[in-house]
Amino acid sequence: MSTQPAVPKIVAAEFLGTFVLVFGGCGTAVLAGEHVGFAGVALAFGLTVLVMAYAVGHISGGHFNPAVTLGAAAGGRIAWKDTPVYIVTQVVAGVVAGAALLLVASGTDGFDAVKSGFASNGYDDRSPLGYSLLACLVIEVLLTAVFLWVILGTTDTRAPKGFAPLAIGLALTLIHLISIPVTNTSVNPARSIGVGLFAGGDAIGQLWLFIVAPVVGGLIAGFSYALLLGSDDAAELAEAMEA
Predict the structure, then answer these.
(1) What is the mean pLDDT of the chain?
(2) In this structure, is residue 227 part of a structural domain?
(3) Are 73 and 222 in contact (CB under 8 A)?
């Protein structure tokens, strides 16, 4: 008998997880960034993934990110036919979280999402420290691949049980510590779209990079994981032959 959760439960889990990630991570940047700095924002993103992976990961797998979903499909962890419901849910949740954050942030006099940047991602003059398009492309592809390798590795049947959310949350924190100065860190198209749509024309014009690069990085990791490190099936077959 299949134990695959019903689609409405997957949608609910992915919506909640993605909403908390975008609202919590970007909310920290928008509402408290000047007080907590890069390290505080990085920790906020890591904590959102950690807590929500423990909360709803057992329902949907805890993707909260289209690049993770596509990487998981490329790695054989979910069926390709299941990816659209994940991705649509994640993007919608990101936009809803962005709208909720805008409502809160607008509660103080003088707030302007366009002028503030609204935690959006960018390259060239929209990069926090002015990094080029090429530098931003490389770091987003590379760090998304690293993120997926961590996810696929910690959820492998050969890995210690119960520690995946902790490792994944710490990995996302590390990724933000590295790349906030470069791109403001995406590695997640839903996160980028969720706030970018409210940050104005320049932010929207640069969104393509923060959709394409994470997807490419996720697919690279998904297709390469088994080739580099072996597969769950191989481990299970070896265990069965030893029994």
Answers:
(1) 94
(2) yes
(3) yes
- 198 Cβ partners below 8 Å, 6+ apart? 98, 99, 102, 113, 118
User: Is residue 1 scored above 50 in pLDDT?
Assistant: no
DSSP 6: P
Q: Is residue 2 part of a domain?
A: no
Range of the domain at 192: 7-242
Return d(Cα 200, Cα 22) in angstroms, integer: 18
Position of tokens 């992976």?
A: 53
User: Residue 71 falls within a domain, yes or no?
Assistant: yes
pLDDT at 233 (0 to 100): 61
Q: Confidence class of residue 191 from pLDDT cuts 50, 70 and 90?
A: very high
The model's pTM = 0.93
Whether the CB-CB separation of 155 and 77 falls below 8 Å is answered with yes
Give first-to-last CA distance, the chain, whole Å: 24
Is residue 210 a contact partner of residue 196, using CB atoms and an 8 Å limit? Answer: yes
In the predicted model, what is the mean pLDDT of residues 4-14? 93
